[in-house]
Amino acid sequence: MKIDIIGDIHGCYPEFKALTEKLGYSWITDIPIHPEKRKLAFVGDLTDRGPLSLKIIEIVWRLVKEQGAHYSPGNHCNKLYRFFLGNKVQVSHGLETTVAEYESLIPQEQKRIRDMFIELYQNAPLYQVLDEGKLVITHAGIREDYIGKTHSGVKTFVLYGDITGKTNPDGTPIRRDWAKSYKGKPLVVYGHTPVENVRWVGNTVNIDTGAVFGGKLTALQYPEKETISVSSTMPFVAEKFREIT
Questions:
Q1: What does 26-67 look like in DSSP terms, one character per residue?
Q2: Which of 4, 8, 48, 217 could be disulfide-bonded to 76 (CB atoms 3.0-4.6 Å)?
Q3: 87-104 per-position pLDDT tens digit
Q4: pTM for the full model?
Q5: What 3-state class would DSSP assign to 232?
Q6: Handedness of CA 16, 4, 74, 212 (dihedral sign)
Q7: Which of 91, 97, 87, 57 is nearest to 74 (CA)?
Q8: Spatial contact of 65 and 29, defined as CB atoms under 8 Å apart
Q9: How far is 178 from 182, CA to CA, in rounded Å?
């Protein structure tokens, strides 16, 4: 199994295209395909805050359907899913950019994108266990004893991390550093919390290097365990790269 795991894209299409090209993928068919049949995997948070969230939805939907790519949702994916279902959600913390894109479309295109994302989300596993259990790909992380389980506590953890119930001044949840206590054998690859550089802690690696906040978009190549990044075109927002306690 040879896959390239992509960190939180958040609608940053130029960075995603540049990163996949750097990884050796060709875009002849308008989606990235590798000549050596490597597959792509995603840690979630495809949308929100960046300029081209709907384009990323369409590309990832095609990759999953046509190329067997691996995708699990992040918290932003979950919120957009609930929005598309017609549930009452706050159109804030980045969702407003995706909604603005969506509302600019004609009704037929709105339905096409909405149906596409709902299908993508509903068919996605909560987290991915690959390579005979040696690799776990999840959005915000996972405890060792949660691997193989899908109850509500697991869902909260993989979408939001090890939250304390308290919030930062900007309204985002304060999270504990679960990676420091992870002792599991599977390599856990995750994102969610922007870090300026790829963060290895034990047998875990955070590859959300804050593309939408002016950092980098990063991929982890597996099984090589090598990381490849491209610089962001977005403005740098220093306060978004927060230390975990």
A1: B-TTSS-B-TT--EEEE-S--SSSSS-HHHHHHHHHHHHHHH
A2: 48
A3: 999 999 999 999 999 999
A4: 0.96
A5: coil
A6: negative
A7: 57
A8: no
A9: 7
